[in-house]
C-alpha cells in the first residue's frame, strides 16, 4: 500500500487546477459519450496528472513549498514505482477510450517526463520549458479530451479553443513559479518567471490572459454564442480582482509573491473557470 507521504506527493487535489481545460473541451463537444467522458476524466485527473506530479517531486526532491503542499515530505523509491503504475494504468485505460487515444498517452507522459527528468530537464530552460507546458497541458490536453469524449469526432480540429487553452495555461503557469525563484535557481532551474522577475511575471501573465480572452471572444462571437462569452467574462471577475490586488502587493513588496498568495490565486482561478465551463457545458447540453 502507498504510504501517506507517497499519496501526498501525488497531489491529487492539485489536479483540480487543470480541470477547467477538461470542462471547456467537454462544453465544445457536440456529441458526448458519457462513459468515455468519465473514463477520460479518471485517466487524466486521477492517474496521469498525479503520476506527473509524483515524478516531478521524485526528481526535484523539494524541501520548500511546491504546488499544493507547503511542507512536502521527502520522496521515496515507492513514489517512483507508484508513478510508473499510474502511467501504465492510464495508457491501458486510454485504449478503452480509443486506439488513437491510447497511443497518444505515452506522448503526453513522455513530455511530462522530459520536463522533469534530470537527464533532459526541459524545465531548466525558461522558454522551452514554458512552451512545453502550455502546448501539452493547454492545447494538446484540450484536443485529447475533445477527441476522447466525442461519440463521432468531426474532422475539423477546433484550433481556436485549443489556442485559447494554451494562452490560459500560459497566463496561469508562471504565477505558480513566482514564489520558487530561489529554490529553482539553487537547483539549476531558470524558469520563465525567474527570467521575467516578480513584476515582469505579472505583466506577462496579464498579457497572456488578455490574449486568451480575445481568442475566446472571437471564437464565441464567430459561432453566434455571445452569451457564452458573457458567462465566461463575468466569472473571470474574481480572478481579475485578486490578480490585480496581488499585483499591487507584490509591486510594493516582493515578499508578497509567496506560496500562500499563489495558492489563493490558483484556487480562485480554478474555481471560477471551472464554474464558467461547467455552466457552458450545461448550456450546450440544454441547447
Explain what you see.
With 287 residues, this protein is mainly alpha-helical. The chain has helices at 4-10, 19-27, 34-60, 77-97, 99-116, 126-149, 159-172, 181-186, 192-222, 226-252, 259-286. It has a single domain (4-286), classed as Farnesyl Diphosphate Synthase. It is built from eleven helices and no strands. The longest helix has 31 residues, at 192-222. The radius of gyration is 19 Å and the shape is globular. The model has no long low-confidence stretch (mean pLDDT 93).
**What is the number of domains?**
1
Structural class: mainly alpha
- CATH class (first level) name: Mainly Alpha
SSE order, one letter for each helix or strand = HHHHHHHHHHH
The CATH topology, please? Farnesyl Diphosphate Synthase
Distance between the termini: 46 Å
Extract low-pLDDT stretches: none
Q: Count of DSSP E strands?
A: 0
Strand content: under 5%
Tell me, what's the shape?
Answer: globular
The averaged pLDDT comes out at 93
Q: Report the biggest beta sheet as strand number plus sense, adding barrel if it closes.
A: none
Number of helices: 11
Q: Determine Rg (CA atoms, Å).
A: 19 Å
Percent helix, as a range, is over 70%
Return the CATH architecture.
Answer: Orthogonal Bundle
Amino acid at each position: 500500500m502507498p504510504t501517506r507521504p507517497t499519496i501526498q506527493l501525488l497531489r491529487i487535489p492539485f489536479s483540480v487546477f487543470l480541470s477547467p481545460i477538461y470542462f471547456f473541451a467537454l462544453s465544445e463537444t457536440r456529441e458526448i459519450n458519457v462513459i468515455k467522458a468519465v473514463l477520460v476524466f479518471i485517466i487524466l485527473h486521477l492517474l496521469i496528472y498525479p503520476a506527473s506530479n509524483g515524478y516531478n517531486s521524485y526528481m526535484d526532491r523539494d524541501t520548500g513549498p511546491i504546488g499544493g503542499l507547503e511542507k512536502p515530505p521527502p520522496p521515496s523509491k515507492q513514489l517512483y514505482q507508484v508513478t510508473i503504475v499510474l502511467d501504465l494504468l492510464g495508457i491501458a485505460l486510454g485504449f478503452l477510450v480509443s486506439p488513437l487515444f491510447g497511443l497518444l498517452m505515452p506522448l503526453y507522459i513522455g513530455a511530462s517526463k522530459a520536463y522533469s527528468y534530470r537527464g533532459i530537464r526541459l524545465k531548466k530552460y525558461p522558454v522551452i520549458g514554458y512552451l512545453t507546458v502550455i502546448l501539452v497541458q493547454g492545447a494538446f490536453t484540450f484536443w485529447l479530451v475533445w477527441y476522447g469524449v466525442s461519440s463521432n469526432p468531426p474532422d475539423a480540429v477546433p484550433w481556436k479553443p485549443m489556442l485559447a487553452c494554451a494562452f490560459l495555461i500560459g497566463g496561469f503557469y508562471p504565477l505558480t513559479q513566482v514564489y520558487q525563484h530561489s529554490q529553482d535557481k539553487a537547483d539549476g532551474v531558470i524558469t520563465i518567471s525567474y527570467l521575467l522577475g516578480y513584476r515582469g511575471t505579472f505583466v506577462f501573465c496579464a498579457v497572456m490572459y488578455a490574449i486568451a480572452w480575445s481568442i475566446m471572444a472571437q471564437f464565441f462571437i464567430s459561432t453566434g454564442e455571445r452569451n457564452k462569452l458573457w458567462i465566461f467574462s463575468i466569472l473571470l471577475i474574481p480572478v481579475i480582482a485578486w490578480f490585480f490586488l496581488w499585483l499591487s502587493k507584490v509591486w510594493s513588496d516582493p515578499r508578497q509573491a509567496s506560496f500562500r498568495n499563489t495558492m489563493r490565486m490558483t484556487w480562485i482561478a480554478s474555481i471560477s473557470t471551472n464554474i464558467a465551463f461547467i455552466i457552458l457545458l450545461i448550456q450546450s447540453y440544454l441547447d
